[in-house]
Amino acid sequence: MQIQQENDRYVKLSEDANRGAIIAAVPGRFLVEFIPILKYVPAWFPGASFKRKAREWYKMIRAMVEVPYADAKGQIESGNPTVSILRTNLQKIEAGEKDNAFTEDVLRNTLAVLYSAASDTSVSTMATCILGLLEHPEVLKKAQVQIDGVVKPGHFPDLDDEPSLPYITAIVKEALRWRDVAPFGVPHALSMDDEYKGYRLPAGAIIIANQWAMLHDEDVYADPFEFNPDRFIDPETGKIDYSRARDPGHACFGFGRRICPGRFMAFESLWLTIASLIAAFNIEKPKEKVTLPSGEEVERTVELTHEYEASLVV
């Protein structure tokens, strides 16, 4: 399916669904979290707005999952020859292949997650990266020099160039660390009693990992509130050296069994986008005076709430 440059139906479905999920994911957002008995009251009851909102958000999520899938499947059935993950797995399902892990319901939900799960966080990380480059033009110039020395004129960087462009990798890592788009990750409930450093944690307790603190620990990252990709670079070899500063991937993608399953794809997507942006443009502040958002002005959720202006100059 072709995505329109503006006002695309499928993009809007995803954005609407994500908006509700983001609000619901904020710990303590609704009174029912503190007074669990409220989950038994009817939706019309005062104080039960969470039920009405949940019903509305559920409809948005189901539309985001089902509408694009139905349209894409319809195109396949009408003879569209395009090869896709949907076509390939539908053929396996219809053929009853034993090694196929998908049912049609699993396939439908998986395809929806592939797009929607990281759309807001990826956009926010790119916005954070551009902000860092605006504040530190010397970083941009250094990255452009490295790209010019590796990539052929008239070409964009690709993943084959990644090992030869460590400074681009350092920029992406620093963007993920500097303003983590999910500072408290996803809350989890303990399935059994546990103990941590003398603290008893009962089964059912909600655990919130302070990823923001981990990624701004002064003992791990010198001047943690500064955008500084060079913290990951060995000055002698010019290569990535995580003994100098820990890879932020240890925290920004979550932990354990519930770690982000799309973290590798997300990183490579960010790397390609940021590398191409740096290769193609000079990123500058507009000529008129603008105020860039400070750390305190950026809401610590999954998106930058304060807009800023930047000029992309060819």
Automatic annotation (TrEMBL):
**Which SUPFAM superfamilies does the record match to this protein?**
Cytochrome P450 (SSF48264)
What pathway is it annotated to? Secondary metabolite biosynthesis
InterPro entries registered for this protein in UniProt? Cyt_P450, Cyt_P450_CS, Cyt_P450_E_grp-I, Cyt_P450_sf, Cytochrome_P450_fung
Entry's Gene Ontology molecular function annotations: heme binding; iron ion binding; monooxygenase activity; oxidoreductase activity, acting on paired donors, with incorporation or reduction of molecular oxygen
Top-level taxon of the source organism: Eukaryota
Keywords, comma-separated and alphabetical: Heme, Iron, Metal-binding, Monooxygenase, Oxidoreductase
Q: Which cofactor does it need?
A: heme
Question: Which residues are heme-binding?
Answer: 260
Q: What family, per the record?
A: Belongs to the cytochrome P450 family.
Which PANTHER family does its entry note?
P450, PUTATIVE (EUROFUNG)-RELATED (PTHR46300:SF7), P450, PUTATIVE (EUROFUNG)-RELATED-RELATED (PTHR46300)
Q: What is this protein called?
A: Cytochrome P450
> Taxonomic classification, please?
Eukaryota, Fungi, Dikarya, Basidiomycota, Agaricomycotina
